[in-house]
Amino acid sequence: MASDQKCINTIRCLAADTVQKAKSGHPGAPMGMAPMAHILWSKIMNYNPASPHWFNRDRFVLSNGHACALQYCMLYLTGYQDMTLKELQSFRQVDSKTPGHPESHMTDGIEVSTGPLGQGFANAVGLAIAAANYAAVYNKPGFENLLNNYTYVFTGDGCLQEGVSCEASSLAGHLKLGNLIVLYDDNHITIDGETELSFTEDVVKRFDAYGWHTQIIEDGDNDFAGIERAIRNAQQVKDKPSFIKVRTTIGIDSSKAGTEKAHGSPLGDAEIEKVKAKYGFDPKALFNVDQDVADIYSQAKQKGKALESEWQSLFGKYQAAFPDLAKELERRMKGEAVHAWREVLPTYKPTDAPKSTRALSQICIQKLAPLLPEFIGGSADLNPSTLTYMECSPDFQPEGLIKGASFAGRNIRFGVREHAMAAVCNGLSAFGGIIPYCSTFLNFIQYCLPAVRLSALSRHGVIYIMTHDSIGLGEDGPTHQPIAAMAQIRATPHIIDIRPADGNETSGAYVIALQERDRPSVLALCRQDIPQLPGSSIESVAKGAYTLVDHAGEGKTADVILIGSGSETHLCVNAAAELAKAGVNARVVSMPSHRLFGEQPVEYREKVLLTGVPVLSVEASSTYGWSQFAHAHIGMEGFGTSGPAPKVFEKFGFTADNIANKAKALIAFYKSKNHPVPDLVHVPKL
After folding, report:
1. How do 151-156 and 632-636 pair as beta strands?
2. Which residue is catalytic, options 111, 162, 418, 568?
3. What is the tens place of the pLDDT at every residue in 256-301?
4. Is there a contact between 634 and 658 (Cβ–Cβ < 8 Å)?
5. In Å, what is the CA distance from 460 to each residue of 169, 171, 364, 456, 478?
6. pLDDT for 30 beyond 90
7. For residue 474, what are the CA distances in angstroms to 59, 149, 529, 571, 642?
8. Is 333 exposed, middle or buried (0-12, 13-18, 19+ CB in 10 A)?
9. β-strand 59-62 against 151-156: which pairing, if any?
10. 537 three-class SS
């Protein structure tokens, strides 16, 4: 039987070979963290390589994702079907399952996509919150360990310098997440050189202050028993997350050990051969794993199969004892939707009272939340403003902190931590069986964008409920008024943008957001009251854009098309009525979603955006991106201003009169210049 030392040395050489074959990557951290990885995968973690999605598995997050050669090596050694030798040898190559940083949607065994430093750390907090919530809801007397997994994290200096990890660490400490265990690879090296150049704080004291349980391993290169002991000690601490600082040597046993030169470039063939010779391995053998080492890791499959079998047996007994809860849990584990949730969403008539779409969203949330136990989320200390608190559930808090609150609660108090909030929601989504949402003002989605981008990349169906969505928020002024936010969202692949124009469209926005489980949605909602519109419907939102009003009448063609989005759509309706009095026939198109409209077939889009008819878009934000749908635009070319919303709208031309006048000017432009109106639908896609 191979010793721990031989297994660790094998990991080090395998990782170095993986990076060297690619001629690209980060060999130093995998070599330094090999003892931590060996102990965790061979002695600590509960997982089943033959069943990567077993629900009660422990979760592992490599927050310092540049060290992913280590994670790929561990998946290969322990027998994950996805991770073959060929995949290791294809590291960082096109279409491989071993990309340059871990991507959860590509490779079994990768729980979350990491690489942007600190994101994985915050994702792990989300995974731990999810596990705690599941356990609080479904574990019952006699079944206290039905759901009892841990979340383990490897992190580095870079992650701990990023603000998102600070926010997430603070939240995890407040929540007393005893199922979260972080191992800090303290190798004293960043890309620039020694950490003393920029990072001299006492990290352990920082985590003490956050309310974490902390331990230190002074010799992480050799103290294997100490690493195992520290992790097992951490498992016993139930009322605090655990932080274990492990002092390691980057690129250990190479001539570049302990320097930045071991960080981001292959060591070189000759250097790796020297390391292998030092370990007593064949210097020329590439990707070699001796049989006695392979035997150690092959036990993971046997152990994992037994663990899952035991758990399935326990779950069978649970089904008999708690059939309703078991049925619900099984549905969520399978990712199946609740039946008939759409029917509770409200519909509206034009005679109904005007309301802001944030208030209309609040109604949707209160209708949906009792039916959807998987609907979990909160705001960045903005519940009275974003109106996203679920009245049917208490807070998610450690017991005893707030009366009635517990880990069974579904309202998460994220605090003023927008970046971590979004990243935590990615972790909630990654856990499975959860529909996470989070909320702040649309302008402050800027704080969240790195995590929002990873939602899209990783196919997490997070719902971003963003209120105060334009200059219409008024008096708070240009520091809070979003101008470019929608353009940024729409420019990011795989995100559904939805800016509803009234109550029916708000209900439709929730239909889309809830059924799209592999794409995030951003719901941009207004602060000011707006009317319920004639011709709107829940179903039309799925088309992205649709004809709301057409003054041309049946069999005739409109003179101009006004496209409105969100709270400006009713202004287009009013402008069209004014134009009709002047003998100008306008069609009003509501466009809640650029993305969804762009996905419609040409045949549908050409029915909405008529060939030969000039189109004017109206949105109280940047006009960037609108040129694909309109010939001219009323929008924001600069920042807004502070003042009552009606006055701010008037100042920047968002009035029915101005829209009507601009529409007339647009019609006149094409007539006077005798230019054909450019076709917006039939354009080449090469």
Report:
1. unpaired
2. 418
3. 999 999 999 999 999 999 999 999 999 999 999 999 999 999 999 9
4. yes
5. 22, 21, 21, 6, 31
6. yes
7. 45, 47, 12, 17, 6
8. middle
9. parallel
10. coil
